[in-house]
Specification:
Strand content: 15-25%
Oligomer: single chain
Number of helices: 27
């Protein structure tokens, strides 16, 4: 397939205006293909040649202005249109198109629970040509009118209101001007919950087998949807620009969600079959808010070319977190949603769960500016690589800082100018910055150059001195925790910066809190103040004795790594859980995380700190974030194999403490988190077998499907179960997630036969769907099975290269992410992988994942070396 280059897109946009697509899709023609007939009305501004994109199973006919053309002229995914005269034209294409099993184009899924079939489109970034012929680039917006013929009993959803006209035929209301990648259709025997809000039809939809789970959460999902809709209308002058708002939870979806106007598609794991924590509910709510923000930034106003993808994703990421906080906390949304509590501060979750994603991406060789130079995104293949922690988390961090600097009033004034000037059209970074600048006296252009056009992450380090006291000799020292002011006493803060960006940060000064109900080890905020980094070189002088803890970036408004002074770090080790504000604790935990990754903190010290403080942590997002890093990176990768049992034992003991703490049933989310991580850390099967046999954790919770499969997977890794038990579990849970659980378990079994069968399924068979591929890959590589898996390490690179070329970008990305030998932490593995990067046949999606994975491998080796050297 030829990828579209930026130069080609610019040339085509200069000569074409595309007015309307009229599309007829027939989904009744079989299980492998569907029929697609497309009529495109367009105008040539001047005579010239161009091409249209289509990737058919069979191109039956094509005609231009009533004149038949030769289907054999199709070259890959391009059909040349030559000799076009100036003026209007109409192109007709009739084709059979392949269904997808990889989440690209028109994905087809048959639910193993009840045998019902569902199809849906995912046309981002250039997959519209898998469904219908198109001039496939974001700046050739058009009206789309779609008719669908579906099996009787199916419901069809689209970008506009869909009307059933009889005999399985559906007409979807024509769209306003939108980009090709935003067209959406979903069809099947959906279970739907519908309502109206602000005069518009709202609906949520899922597979029939998930109906009871969607119904249980329908009030919450719709409450969040309405609250965010209302809040966006308070922020934005432009009203919601489409005729309806449907949210479809679809199977085997590759992303978290997709912002199709009027029909947002979500991965249907967000319809919870098993118990979840409040933080996971909050994540679902944030994704709802994120995708709704795209209705304005991305759908109403769309990027011109893919170098500005951050304009879509950073904006929606920032708005998702900020608007969810504004729309739910003050209105106590959770109180009207089945009695559930309101969400906590979403920015804590952002700090601990998302920001590290940006920090990690920004330190890899593949880093790029938030807003890359156009020449760095020359084609659609390279554009697809930039959907990472930089375009989402770093960009959102930069926008959050920008809002704090400009003030929300000026920021929103600039945004509303942007929408007014470019509604139903396209815009660039330059347009965005100009529109922001029109609303403020601050130099937004300079900010953009410093924050959006540069790479890497700054490190801010605190240095603290206590100047000479000016009080008379013999004056007694104050008691620890006494008030901050004392005649003549002061302390000085200097902040050094390793990096190039300006920062305005908040500094928090904390004292030990004694004689309070909080008890020993707790800290009290004494002072919070702002400083500029770099400043004029003069230390900041503050009154009073030297604080026990000084935290840079208190409130987490800037994007930088932080290093504390030695005294503050000693306080952290003993009193981290006593810091009063969860967002400050998130900053400190991120500091510890970064220090481990940089080889500045022994992984064992991080585990010991978690063991000391997590049993007293009140914020669930922090508990989940710390345990995820401790288990997924430290225990699995950063400690040497001989030290892994001790690391797992520490995690198991920590989880036991959390389980004991929650025996009274007051913290079900915390208990669930502890149970999950205890299962993953178990090194002996007895407790897990007992839970599985009894169907419950002692004292609760009862085992739901997620916990059953989690236990069975861990037993498989330990060699404490077999195929018979896995088959029995699958018979009890024959759902799609049950099939994935069984695939994961079978691949995790520590036998040569199991590994050979899983490897063949991954790299030879080519019949696994995207989700079954991922589940099998997740089970295959396991820490502790290095000897058994060693022969597969050198095989991975050539076989993954061939697989990616055969099956396309989605499977290429999955292979690089999940099938990579991540636990082969040794120099030979690094050498083998580095050599593989020289292969010219590597597709871009796989190459990018390998670059990142090998850098993570290099870092893991460095962390181990630093820990061994330290002793």
């Amino acid at each position: 397939m030829s990828v579209l280059t930026r130069d080609e897109a610019q040339t085509r946009a200069q000569i074409l205006d595309v007015e309307r697509y009229t599309i007829a899709l027939d989904l009744t023609t079989g299980e492998e293909t569907f029929d697609s007939r497309t009529a495109i009305r367009f105008t040539n501004r001047a005579a010239g040649d161009t091409f249209v994109e289509v990737r058919p199973a069979t191109l039956r006919s094509i005609s231009l202005d009533g004149r038949p053309l030769d289907p054999a002229l199709l070259d890959g995914n391009r059909y040349p249109l030559t000799g076009l005269g100036e003026g209007p034209h109409e192109l007709h294409i009739d084709a059979a198109m392949h269904y997808s099993r990889t989440g690209e184009g028109m994905h087809r899924f048959t639910d193993p629970t009840d045998g019902e079939t569902y199809v849906y489109t995912q046309l981002f970034l250039d997959d519209v040509q898998r469904v219908f012929a198109a001039f496939d680039q974001p700046d050739l917006k058009s009206v789309f009118a779609i008719d669908v013929t579906a099996p009787e009993g199916w419901t069809v959803l689209g970008n506009g209101v869909a009307e059933h006209t009889g005999r399985g035929r559906w007409t979807i209301a024509p769209t306003p001007l939108i980009s090709t990648y935003l067209v959406a259709v979903a069809a099947g025997p959906w279970h739907s919950v519908t309502t109206e809000h602000a005069g518009l039809p709202f609906g949520i939809h899922c597979r029939r087998s998930l109906a009871p789970y969607l119904d249980a959460d329908a009030d919450e999902i719709l409450d969040i949807t309405r609250a965010c809709y209302d809040r966006y209308h308070e922020k934005f002058d432009e009203p919601y620009p489409f005729d309806s708002y449907d949210q479809a939870f679809v199977p085997e979806f590759n992303a978290g969600a997709m912002e199709n106007p009027g029909l947002v598609t979500f991965r249907d794991e967000f319809v919870y079959r098993s118990a979840v924590t409040d933080t996971e509910r909050q994540t679902r709510a944030m994704v709802i808010a994120h995708e709704m923000a795209h209705m304005w930034f991305g759908d109403l106003t769309t990027l011109t070319w893919w170098d500005d993808i951050w304009l879509n994703e950073s904006f929606a990421e920032y708005m998702g977190y900020q608007t969810l906080t504004e729309a739910t906390l003050p209105r106590a949304l959770g109180s009207v949603s089945a009695g559930k509590a309101p969400f906590p501060d979403t920015w804590v979750d952002f700090g601990v769960a998302r920001k590290g994603w940006g920090y990690d991406a920004d330190q890899r060789p593949s880093t790029h500016p938030v807003a890359p130079d156009p020449d760095a995104v020359p084609d659609t293949a390279s554009a697809l690589l930039n959907f990472d922690g930089i375009s989402y988390a770093k960009g959102a961090s930069a926008l959050r800082q920008l809002v704090a600097w400009l003030g929300e009033k000026d920021f929103l004034a600039g945004i509303n100018t942007h929408f007014a000037r470019h509604k139903f059209a396209n815009a660039t970074l330059a347009d965005f910055i100009d529109n922001l600048a029109s609303a403020t006296d601050r130099d937004v252009h300079a900010w953009a150059e410093q924050w959006l056009r540069t790479t890497g992450i700054d490190t801010l380090t605190a240095e603290i001195e206590t100047p000479r006291q000016t009080e008379p000799a013999g004056t007694p020292e104050p008691a620890r925790g006494a008030g901050p002011v004392r005649n003549g006493q002061s302390w000085a803060l200097a902040v050094t910066r390793d990096g190039s960006r300006p920062h305005r940060i908040t500094v928090g000064a904390y004292d030990h809190a004694l004689n309070t109900q909080a008890g020993p080890g707790h800290l009290a905020l004494r002072d919070r103040f702002e400083i500029d980094v770099p400043g004029d070189g003069t230390p900041t002088i503050r009154p009073g004795h030297r604080p026990a803890l000084v935290v840079l970036n208190d409130g987490d408004l800037t994007y930088a790594k932080v290093r504390l002074d030695a005294t503050s770090w000693d306080t952290v080790l003993t009193s981290l859980s006593g810091i009063p504000d969860a967002l400050t604790r998130a900053v400190v935990w991120n500091t510890a995380r970064d220090m481990v990754r940089d080889g500045d903190l022994n992984p064992a010290t991080y585990l010991a700190t978690a063991r000391t403080h997590l049993p007293h942590e009140s914020d669930l997002a922090l508990v989940q974030g710390v345990l995820t890093f401790a288990a997924g990176q430290i225990a699995a990768r950063y400690v040497a194999p001989e030290d892994r049992p001790a690391a797992l034992a520490t995690l198991a003991d920590l989880c036991r403490d959390l389980i004991r703490r929650t025996e009274d049933g007051s913290h079900p989310g915390l208990r669930l988190t502890a149970v999950r991580h205890f299962i993953d850390a178990a090194t002996q099967p007895d407790t897990l077998r007992s839970w599985l046999d009894e169907g419950t954790v002692h004292g609760g919770p009862e085992l739901d499907p997620e916990l059953r499969w989690r236990i069975l997977t861990r037993l498989a890794v330990l060699g404490a179960t077999d195929e018979t038990a896995i088959a029995g579990a699958l018979e009890a849970d024959p759902s799609a997630t049950g099939r994935e659980g069984a695939a994961r378990c079978r691949a995790a079994l520590p036998t040569p036969e199991a590994k050979a069968a899983a490897w063949d399924a991954l790299f030879t068979d080519d019949t696994l769907s995207n989700y079954l591929f991922t589940a099998t890959a997740q089970g295959f590589w396991q820490p502790g099975q290095e000897e058994l898996l060693a022969p597969y390490v050198p095989r991975f690179y050539p076989e993954a290269t061939a697989l990616a070329a055969r099956r396309g970008p989605a499977i290429a990305e999955a292979a690089g992410r999940h099938a990579f030998p991540a636990y082969a932490i040794d120099p030979e593995s690094l050498t083998t992988g580095t050599r593989a990067l020289e292969d010219p046949d590597l597709v871009p999606a796989l190459r990018r994942k390998l670059v990142d994975q090998l850098d993570d491998l290099r870092r893991a080796l460095a962390v181990r070396t630093a820990a061994a050297t330290a002793g």
